[in-house]
Write a structure and sequence with these properties.
The protein is of the alpha+beta class. The chain is about 35% helix and about 20% strand. The chain is built from 46 helices and 57 strands. Strand 55 and strand 56 form a beta hairpin.
Length: about 1500
């Protein structure tokens, strides 16, 4: 047994971005509740050899609320300094050696959420709060700076380790900013990308951006958002990387030089044992650590508590290593909040982590294995129990809903603790081990549950079917007593379990049949002892070790002693006069056998009594004895006693735990205090003596700690009295005493055991009853978001205890203000006591009189009152009233009280009038009610708009119709007051459902209207559908598409629902819309949406997602083939680019594609393996699906990704046609693909189609077509022509010098757009620009050029004759003429419109003929070439040209017109250029032919000048 003190500390605080830290040399600190616990790690910890090298060495005490931030100074020479921030509004600077506060500030007005000690400036501490305010505090000069950067909630901040003025701040909404504090917090970069809370910011330990070979373009799709302006001398000159972790499940690495993201790592979902409940959204806290000595690695937390080591050199492969992957059960089981590195004295690199599973773990960074674990407690330590069988096994009942079983004897691990949480779900308030059965542990909870755990198995506990109505106070194993529930003699267990609960009952549970009903032992006590009176409320049970005597403690302070088997009452101890909390029998193995009859007891009084029951037990009295004198009295504690334990090693030695915050060891026989332990900061709740070490005691308290302490090491011998006691109170009262709830005292055992469990952890914030209920601000039971039943296998329930979700209000605000007010009151009372009465009078204002007029008239002068009497007597008793008397009576209305009803009514009328004039209609209404004129009241109130709930509630008294009318009138009045919902409720009360619904709808309360309609109308009522549709339309207009979709679904308009969901147009919305349409049977819509979704994903190069979207529909199988081919083609293109050093960002499907074989073969192989396409029938079906889809032809402006998709559609048709041997269709589809790339000006793509699908040219296709009369022969000719055309250009460029293929391609693409489409490009150009020779400067011809012109190239040049098709040249010439004429006409119309416009603005009429005007102006804009005469062309001339050209075109056979052909004249020009560069390689005959074609058909403007160049 190790002879050194140990601590089980409180759990580190949750949901804080930096509340633990460590410094080199081995000191680690973590914030737990309102203090910071310090742990020495490494050789300096002085741990016993063989055990983990760490020790809890102390606590920083001083904050009054939860500590939210903790940071050490990382400057050599001041490692002893650290800073904390707290919800009490202060930032304190501490010296850890003396554990005292050096200085503090309370600059923040709001809750502090982030804190960091600058690693560059020795005395700078930066803190940020929830309103976005940042304070920089310089310790040495006690100076501060206030910065307000953004009005957002700050989540974390980290100072740069490389530049003293830079601070990175992460906000709740995902924004990250880098500020310069020397420039009043100027924002250097605003980094956008995260979508949720920023949990952690880590700067790269090395300045500069050379440490990572991140390809800067990796995330090129992310927009670059600089912060608006270039800052002159920013300290970012050499830059640095920054990593951020966010709740959006991503880690992003940012470049500070460029102010943008360069890498995004998405957290993986790791499959965990036990699985995860799919209904529970996984919690996540993403914290980071960037190791100093491994710059290309980054440590991060993950979903279930795992730690990952990312390899940043392979970011695109998402490569990471799992910590502790080999050993099962070493990882955290819940999310991790903080990671901090620590270098020990012997140079080991460690990493410490804190987690929601309440463990602090230490990891060896060299092996990624867990070195040791420090368990912690998330609630009060209510109960301690050592196992009588497994010596040294200590069970701890904790308020966080878990039982801890601590093997205190473990040689290798000082903190060998197992957690048991299954089936507990509440605070564990009582524990008791079975005296003989191994591993059998009984537990009782705050909500009255009693259960049995087998600590050796992983099974959930057995739970007794009988619950206590209140907290279980204590448990005890004892012999079975006669009761119906236990059956006959034969099948009884040797021991049964007794439980005492807060409602005052003791129940006996049969451990063999826990599902049977438990037995209330009061029945047996009553029968055996013939008791007629009410039995006392029991609060404690304890069995003597021999099982023959049972003691029950009661709420009235009495202790009753019963004898087995029938519980005969033999003795009552009347000593305590307050509720009994604890009873303990002396052990039986002492040197004096009679000591086993000693029983010690503690109550809500501070005195402990010991009674010797030897004589009573031996004499076995007939009637019960009453004892009023104790055997020994132990005085010294100053508050109630909660727990007692006899030492098993000594005679008559007792330890007690008290609410005074100390544990006391007594020599009970000599009544002498031996030693006093004062290590706790709270009220002690339990104490246990080590069964092995006579010097060692364990104690638990409401400070969330269990301490192991040695009696020999305590400096005090007795509990603190007087002044010392006050100091101890102060120490514990460093937390505020929250306001107690006004609450009736529960009858049963109020002060402790109720206070002990009812005064539970959360109550610390709200209803502290005792001296100090630790302001449980970081009480994680309170911090847990909600008691979710989410516990995956092996995961402790953070705080399933609190049945009501506990939110911690900011106590600083809640407490400071009232204090001030109270003080003011107190001082004012002291100063001016006389003012006391008037104030009290003012407070009790008299109610307004309902008959003020008559009251005031009865308080006039004596003469007037006498006159009243005379008038009244005359009125009542004279037989005839003369006019004078009548007039007097009318004047004195108040006499109506004493005469007849008519006069009374007159009086009431006068009183009522006065009330209305004085603005008190409610009093007038009351008078009218007294009169019985309810209808009149209602009418008056309705006219004046003064109806109230009360009046309407009384309306039924005046009859049903009056009530209906009143409710309608009130509803109208409420509408005028804009209280539409209330008005509708009143209409519903008179069953006007349609009116109520219409009212709500017309005032845009759609949600409420639907609720009413759905609840009150028939489901098929058209009003309901109309409501859904109206609301849906409004929501759709406002952009709330998802809710609008729900409305349309409610209205059974599923088609509209799918359409509106798809409106946003992003991939996720489209996918959901497609699935919805599929569910509701709108297959066509679903298919089109799924295709759109796939196309969106395609733009993001998410191939896997695109295929998944297309999988939604069988009808999209053809499209899946297209996408598959597109993916393989892109991959093929990318591979060729990767060879050129470009990087890839796409996520491809993992299809097995053999690298061998042509692209066509690879495509068909994947189709077969991935899509099961094998038989001709399947190919035919896919072909038919795709043939029906027509895409428009391409232009220069077609986006490249769309173009590729359309080309791949044609290529897919080609491959499918080849598979079903439909060669003519295959040729046509291939040609369509080539023509698309030609029309769009994308030469590169055209060449790639050629190389992938026609690697050997078109000969094999000609063989397949065979017959020259095949309908596809013209198409084949065109295809061959385009193939040769491509080869021709490649050859021409190759003459310009040896250049790699990629640069040829690059120039090819440029050439295609710049000079091939000369018909469009060269119209308005100057001669220099449009001359291919000018734009492509002729290189000096290298001498070895002739060598390079091989036979192959000569062969290729010879095949170019195919391009000199006279038919096509003629057709193209006519088409160019048509285009030119149309353009000229369009220009004429534009000029005409312009002149008309000028005419309308000028006054004088224009005499010129518009046609001539147009002709004249037409000649001016085009600047004529040097030799060009640009004469105006008349309209008839143009029309004639157009007609001729159209006629010429009509004469051409369809076979020529149907399929496009490369521009013949363009090919002639290229060939002539080649001839001029390499004389002798282009035959004279071919040059001649080219010149002839140019002369004959080069009449249009585009070619005129070139004809002059080559043909003159």
């Amino acid at each position: 047994m190790s002879l050194e003190p140990r601590t089980l500390p409180p759990s580190p605080n949750w949901y804080c971005t930096r509340c633990s830290d460590a410094v080199p040399g081995g000191l680690f600190g973590f914030a737990a509740r309102t203090s910071v616990f310090l742990v020495r790690v490494g050789p300096g910890a002085g741990a016993i050899p063989g055990t983990p090298p760490f020790r809890v060495i102390g606590e920083l005490v001083g904050h009054t609320e939860r500590v939210s931030g903790f940071t050490f100074s990382h400057h050599p020479g001041q490692y002893n300094l650290c800073a904390t921030s707290s919800d009490d509004g202060t930032v304190k600077i501490w010296d850890v050696e003396t554990k005292t506060v050096v200085t503090e500030h309370a600059l923040h007005q709001h809750t502090i959420s982030a804190l960091h000690w600058s690693p560059r400036v020795k005395d700078l501490i930066v803190s940020g709060d929830e309103k976005g305010v940042v304070f920089c505090y310089w310790l040495n000069r006690n100076d501060s700076q206030h910065l307000f950067i953004e009005p957002r909630t700050i989540f974390c901040l980290t100072c740069s380790p490389h530049h003293e003025d830079l601070v990175a701040i992460g906000y709740k909404d995902g924004i990250v900013v880098i500020i310069d504090i020397s420039k009043k917090g100027e924002v250097i970069h605003r980094l956008r990308g995260h979508e949720d809370e920023i949990h952690s910011i880590a700067w790269c330990p090395l300045p500069g951006e050379d440490c990572l070979s991140i390809n800067q373009e990796e995330n090129s799709e992310e927009p670059e958002i600089p912060n608006g302006r270039v800052i002159g001398q920013t300290p970012m000159t050499n830059g640095c990387y920054l990593a951020t972790g966010s709740k959006d499940q991503t880690i992003r690495i940012w470049s500070c030089t460029r102010g943008r993201g360069v890498m995004t790592l998405k957290l993986p979902f790791l499959k965990r044992r036990g699985g995860v409940d799919p209904t529970v959204k996984e919690r996540l806290w993403l914290t980071l650590h960037w190791p100093k000595d491994h710059l290309t690695q980054l440590v991060s937390s993950c979903f279930g508590g795992e730690l990952l080591l990312w390899d940043l050199t392979q970011s695109w492969r998402r490569k990471y290593t799992l910590f502790s992957a080999s050993s099962e059960g070493q990882n955290h089981s819940r999310i991790v909040f903080n990671l901090c590195p620590l270098q020990t004295e012997d140079g080991k690199q460690l990493l410490l982590s804190t987690s929601m599973d309440r463990d602090v773990k230490c990891w060896d960074m060299a092996t990624l294995e867990c070195c040791w674990t420090l368990p912690s407690l998330g609630g009060f330590a209510y109960s301690l129990a050592f196992s009588p069988v497994d010596t040294g096994c200590l069970a701890i009942g904790v308020g966080d809903g878990m039982i801890r079983v601590w093997n205190t004897l473990s040689i290798k691990n000082n903190y060998d603790v197992k957690n048991f949480w299954q089936g507990v779900k509440s605070k564990v308030t009582a524990l008791c081990w079975h005296p003989t059965k191994e591993g059998c542990l009984a537990f009782g909870t705050d909500d009255g549950k009693v259960g049995l755990y087998d600590t050796y198995s992983n099974k959930p506990p057995q739970i007794s079917s009988t619950y206590h109505k209140k907290t279980v106070y204590s448990l005890a194993w004892g012999p079975p007593i006669p009761s119906m529930s236990l059956g006959g003699e034969g099948d009884r267990p040797s021991l049964t379990l007794y439980s005492c609960g807060g409602e005052g009952l003791v129940l006996q549970h049969n451990p063999w049949k826990l599902n049977g009903e438990a037995f209330d032992i009061n029945k047996l006590i009553r029968d055996t002892n013939s008791i007629k009176y009410k039995l006392p409320v029991h609060t404690e049970i304890s069995w003597k070790a021999d099982g023959k005597i049972m003691a029950l403690g009661n709420e009235d302070g009495s202790i009753e002693i019963f004898q087995v088997p029938n519980l005969k009452l033999i003795c009552t101890i009347q000593q305590h006069h307050k509720l009994v909390n604890t009873i303990s029998w002396h052990h039986e193995h002492g040197s004096q056998p009679e000591l086993s009859c000693l029983v010690a007891s503690g109550s809500n009084n501070a005195i402990i009594y010991v009674h010797n029951l030897k004589t009573v037990i031996e004499s076995n009295p007939e009637s019960p004895v009453t004892i009023t004198e104790p055997f020994r009295t132990l005085s010294g504690h100053t508050a109630k006693i909660t727990s007692l334990a006899w030492s098993p090693h000594h005679d008559g030695r007792l330890v007690s735990a008290s609410y005074d915050g100390t544990a006391q060891v007594w020599d009970a026989l000599r009544e002498e205090p031996l030693c006093n332990f004062r290590g706790h900061r709270g009220r002690l709740l339990c104490v246990a003596w080590s069964p092995l070490d006579p010097d060692c005691i364990y104690s638990g308290a409401d400070d969330f700690c269990v301490y192991k302490w040695l009696t020999s090491m305590q400096e005090h011998s007795r509990p603190p009295q007087g002044k010392k006691s006050i100091e101890l109170e102060k120490k514990r009262l460093s937390q505020p005493k929250p306001k107690p709830k006004k609450k009736k005292k529960p009858p049963s055992r109020v002060p402790v055991k109720q206070g002990l469990c009812d005064g539970n952890e959360e109550e610390s914030l709200r209803e502290s009853v005792g001296p100090v209920e630790n302001g449980g601000l970081s009480d994680q039971e309170g911090e847990e978001e909600a008691p979710e039943p989410e516990l995956p296998c092996g995961a402790p329930p953070a705080a399933v205890v609190s049945r009501e979700p506990v939110t911690c209000p900011p106590v600083s605000l809640g407490l400071e203000k009232p204090k001030v007010i109270v003080n003011n009151k107190v001082t004012s009372l002291k100063k001016e006591l006389p003012k006391d009465k008037p104030e009290a009078l003012v407070r009790k204002r008299k109610a307004r009189l309902i008959l003020p007029l008559s009251t005031s008239l009865d308080h006039r002068s004596k003469e007037e009152l006498h006159q009243d009497c005379l008038v009244l007597a005359t009125a009542k008793y004279s037989k005839e009233l003369n006019e004078d008397v009548s007039a007097d009576l009318e004047e004195r209305v108040h006499l109506g009280l004493f005469t007849d009803r008519a006069t009374l009514y007159r009086m009431m009328e006068a009183e009522g009038k006065g009330h209305l004039e004085n603005g008190h209609p409610e009093l007038f209404h009351q008078l009218m009610l007294w009169k019985g004129d309810l209808k009149g009241v209602l009418q008056t109130a309705a006219e004046r708009g003064e109806l109230t709930d009360n009046l309407v509630a009384m309306a039924p008294v005046a009859g049903y119709h009056v009530w209906l009318w009143a409710v309608e009138a009130f509803a109208k009045q409420l509408c005028f007051q804009d209280q539409y919902v209330k008005a509708a409720s009143h209409l519903l009360s008179i069953h006007k459902v349609y009116e109520a619904v219409e009212l709500l709808k017309s005032n845009h309360f759609y949600r409420e209207a639907i609720a009413v309609a759905k609840a009150r109308l028939r489901p098929e009522d058209p009003v309901l559908k109309d409501l859904y549709l109206s609301w849906g339309a409004v929501l759709e207009k406002d952009g709330h598409y998802a809710v609008a979709a729900k409305c349309y679904l409610g209205a059974a308009s599923a088609y509209d629902a799918a359409k509106v969901l798809a409106k946003k147009g992003d991939a996720a919305s489209l996918r959901t819309a497609a699935e919805l349409a599929s569910i509701v049977g709108e297959d066509e819509l679903s298919a089109s949406l799924a295709l759109r979704c796939a196309q969106e994903l395609l733009l993001a190069r998410n191939w896997v997602g695109a295929q998944e979207a297309l999988q939604l529909h069988e009808s999209l199988k053809g499209q899946r083939l297209v996408f598959c081919l597109l993916e393989l083609l892109s991959k093929h293109r990318e591979e060729s680019q990767l060879a050129d050093g470009k990087s890839s960002t796409s996520s491809y499907n993992a299809w097995p594609t053999g690298a061998e074989g042509s692209l066509t073969e690879r495509v068909t192989a994947v189709w077969k393996s991935a899509f099961g396409l094998d038989t001709p029938q399947q190919y035919q079906a896919a072909l038919q699906q795709l043939q029906n889809i027509q895409y428009p032809s391409a232009t220069n402006n077609t986006p490249s990704k769309q173009l590729l998709l359309h080309i791949c559609h044609d290529l897919t048709l080609a491959v499918l046609s080849q598979q079903v041997a439909s060669w003519d269709k295959a040729v046509e589809a291939l040609l369509r693909a080539v023509v698309r790339s030609y029309d769009s000006g994308n030469f590169t793509v055209m060449q790639e189609v050629h190389s992938a699908f026609l690697p050997e040219g078109c000969d094999h296709l000609r063989d397949k077509l065979g017959d020259c009369q095949s309908p596809a022969t013209p198409a084949l000719k065109s295809l061959e022509a385009f193939f040769i055309y491509g080869r021709l250009y490649e050859f021409w460029w190759s003459l310009s010098g040896p250049c790699p293929e990629s640069s040829i391609r690059g120039r090819a693409a440029h050439r295609r757009t710049a000079s091939i489409e000369q018909c469009q490009q060269l119209d308005d150009a100057s001669p220099e620009a449009s001359d291919p020779q000018a734009s492509e400067p002729e290189p000096s011809r290298p001498p070895e050029l002739d060598m390079r012109l091989t036979e192959e190239s000569e062969r290729m040049l010879n095949t170019c004759k195919e391009l000199f098709s006279e038919k096509h040249a003629s057709l193209q010439n006519s088409q160019r003429t048509v285009a030119e004429v149309q353009e000229t006409l369009a220009e004429m119309i534009r000029q005409h419109q312009k002149s008309q416009l000028c005419k309308s603005t000028a006054n004088g009429p224009d005499k010129n003929d518009p046609e001539q005007e147009a002709e004249r102006s037409l000649s001016s804009p085009q600047s004529p070439g040097k030799n060009e005469k640009n004469e105006p062309v008349s309209l008839p001339e143009l029309t004639k040209r157009l007609t001729e050209a159209n006629e010429t075109i009509a004469k051409f056979p369809e076979s020529v017109k149907a399929w496009p052909f490369p521009d013949v004249l363009e090919c002639c020009l290229v060939l002539l250029h080649i001839g001029s560069q390499c004389p002798g390689h282009v035959t004279q005959e071919m040059q001649q032919q080219a010149q002839e074609l140019l002369q004959k058909y080069g009449s249009t403007k585009v070619y005129q000048r070139h004809c002059q160049t080559f043909c003159t």
